[in-house]
Design a protein that fits this description.
heterodimer, A: 530 residues, mainly alpha, Sodium/glucose cotransporter, two-stranded antiparallel ribbon, 23 helices, 71% helix, B: 79 residues, 2 strands
Chain lengths: 530, 79
């Protein structure tokens, strides 16, 4: 019950914060979608970090370390520290500058202008929207699960649950948890727009970072009878070799996993956050601090994950010993079990709030981004002859946000657990379009046909590889390509092939097709004077 | 001055490339050594790599800031 009160209090506070940002709302479309480019370095750092970190950063990383050891940090965290900042630096700053100068609010508007092709939006729009929807769906389902796990036993008379599964007794059912989270995010995005989103993201990112460290220290203190340091040493010494090393990780998979974080270069919601920056200078803090923030959140979670495999942790939290990696979903229970077993209900409630914060700080940006894309790239473009007043822009963006939240919530009721397996495929799809955004900014010779070829090659290779993965009958996330070189077969991530194919298509087709008019090229690559 | 700027950029991009190479740390792949008796060396190394990435990106903001070569446009954009 205490956990539920803490979670409810947190959601209420968040709602008040988002709603109070509405007092600064000027009423213009630009203010609603981009906070009138007013976001400074600290809030930009928090928004970008909060948006790129999902529930996986807390619960998933602990579970993955419990299952496979420390390799997950190199595969997903340190690589992201390098590549995410690279994208902010190489793409974000330039895109901000063009967005500011030419008035873009969405990624599609940039590509339409850069390629002098209004119709490229028709090709990009469904691809980007479907990938973001998968991403949102995973967040909504994850939120329902978190609320369910942390409210277990709170309302036995309201939610009797399944007697065969004792943790479900008294727990808020996932459909209700997902619904409450959707409503909270919807309300502060609806009223606060981008400013509300940035405020909420800043608050939520602080919450999940601080709570992650506090949770780590409390669990380390209660893991044994000694001091925090003694318990940590004792737990680490008893971790099996397999979890302390990467003996089970393929080196070629580890290498090619580095292509996955390139996806942030094509996230439409991140593009919109980039455009909120007050100045180019505002990017400097996020570029520098992002890898360090990743370390602060991930390292404690991974240490907890490997400690959870030890006899010491099993003695302190007996349900951990009963978890089996063979049972789907077990990995996601590791952190909640550690928190419930080794801390107070108040901290349990706060940690649940922290995990929900990580989920919501991604959901809000995605809702707002889809609302903005529908308004600017569909309504304005095809139903309003390119003209919308500020009032109409805000109205349509809000209407689409409500519709998207509603439709996504309905989808989540179908409980499509398969979407979690689609996560890595979703990121791979965004990564396969990275060559398009990179060439748009750095290659004068990119042509319209080259850009179309890149998008079609990315979509085609994604679809073909996805069908191959589906046919194996194994979990989608485990599908790898086998590349024989010199008598040895190397496993590589499918994203490697997707990026290779889309890059070859972009370069080859651009080189054999007519260059864009000089006037268009000059707009993005002005000739230096003197 | 322009020469210094060019050299600074090359050094920074060289360091970024070095980070990417250092990320493939085959040398600690199977070592179970615990740093300070607590953190597995493979994890400790990658945590240090995250800090190193922060330092390299800090240098990048000083010596390879992308708006240097298009500063005139950024001024128009309201800088």
């Amino acid at each position: 019950m205490i956990s539920t009160i803490v979670i409810s209090g947190y959601l209420l506070l968040l709602l008040l914060l988002g709603l109070s940002s509405n007092r600064l709302f000027s009423g213009s479309g630009k203010d609603y979608q981009l906070a009138t480019h007013s976001i400074g370095p600290f809030m930009l750092l928090m928004s970008l970090f909060g948006t790129t970190m999902t529930a996986f950063a807390l619960i998933g990383s602990t579970g993955e370390a419990w299952q496979n050891g420390i390799g997950v940090y190199g595969k997903m965290a340190s690589s992201s520290g390098i590549i995410h900042s690279l994208c902010f630096f190489v793409l974000g700053v330039r895109l901000w500058r063009f967005g500011r100068e030419y008035g873009y609010a969405t990624q599609i508007e940039f590509f339409q202008d850069r390629l002098a092709s209004p119709r490229i939006g028709l090709l990009l729009f469904p691809i980007l929207v479907s990938m973001v929807v998968i991403y949102i769906l995973a967040g909504v389902l994850g939120a329902g699960t978190v609320v369910n796990v942390f409210t277990s036993g709170a309302f036995p008379s309201l939610f009797p649950g399944d007697p065969a599964s004792p943790p479900s007794i008294g727990a808020v059912p996932p459909w209700l948890g997902s619904g409450v989270i959707c409503v909270v995010v919807l309300l502060y995005v609806f009223f606060g727009g981008m400013r509300g989103t940035a405020w909420a993201n800043t608050f939520q990112t602080l919450v999940f970072m601080v709570l992650g460290v506090v949770t780590f220290l409390v669990i380390a203190k209660n893991l044994g009878d000694g001091s925090i340091w003694e318990n940590m040493r004792q737990a680490s010494e008893s971790v099996g070799e397999r979890w302390k090393t990467r003996s089970d990780t393929s080196k070629s998979v580890f290498l090619t996993y580095m292509f996955i974080p390139l996806s942030v270069g094509m996230f439409p919601h991140l593009f919109q956050h980039w455009l909120t920056a007050r100045s180019a200078e505002a990017f400097k803090l996020p570029v520098v601090a992002h890898p360090i923030f990743i370390m602060l959140v991930w390292v404690p979670c991974i240490m907890l994950g490997i400690w959870a495999t030890t006899e010491m942790a099993h003695a302190a939290v007996p349900p951990l010993a009963r978890l089996s990696p063979e049972v789907p979903g077990s990995a996601n229970k590791v952190l909640p079990l550690l928190v419930k077993g080794l801390s107070s209900p108040i901290l349990g409630g706060f940690l649940a709030a922290g995990v929900l914060a990580a989920i919501m700080s991604s959901l809000d940006s995605q809702f707002l981004c889809l609302g903005t894309m529908f308004t600017n790239n569909i309504v304005k473009e095809y139903f309003a002859r390119g003209q919308l007043t500020d009032k109409q822009t805000v109205f349509w963006t809000r209407t689409f946000i409500v519709a998207i939240v509603f439709v996504t919530y309905l989808f989540s009721l179908l409980d499509p657990r398969g979407v979690f397996g689609l996560g890595v495929w979703c990121f791979s799809g965004f990564s396969s379009l990275f060559p398009l955004v990179f060439a748009s900014l750095y290659w004068r010779r990119l042509t319209r046909a080259g850009a179309y070829a890149c998008i079609l090659a990315a979509a085609g290779s994604w679809l073909w590889l996805f069908i191959q993965a589906w046919r194996t009958g194994k979990p989608l996330a485990e599908y790898l390509l086998e590349i024989p070189i010199g008598g040895t077969t190397y496993d590589v991530m499918p994203v490697t092939a997707m990026i290779l194919i889309s890059t070859v298509a972009l370069v080859a087709v651009s080189l054999v097709t007519k260059p864009l008019p000089e006037q268009t090229v000059q707009k993005f690559f002005p000739t230096r004077q003197g | 001055m322009a020469e210094h700027s060019k050299l600074g950029k090359r050094i920074v991009w060289g360091l970024v490339l070095l980070l990417i190479i250092l990320h493939q740390d085959v040398w600690f792949w199977e070592s179970d050594y615990l740093v300070l008796g607590v953190v597995p060396i493979g994890l400790f190394y990658h945590a240090c790599l995250s800090v190193a990435a922060g330092v390299v990106w800090y240098l990048a903001t000083l010596y390879a800031w992308p708006l240097d070569d298009i500063s005139s446009v950024s001024k128009e954009a309201g800088e």
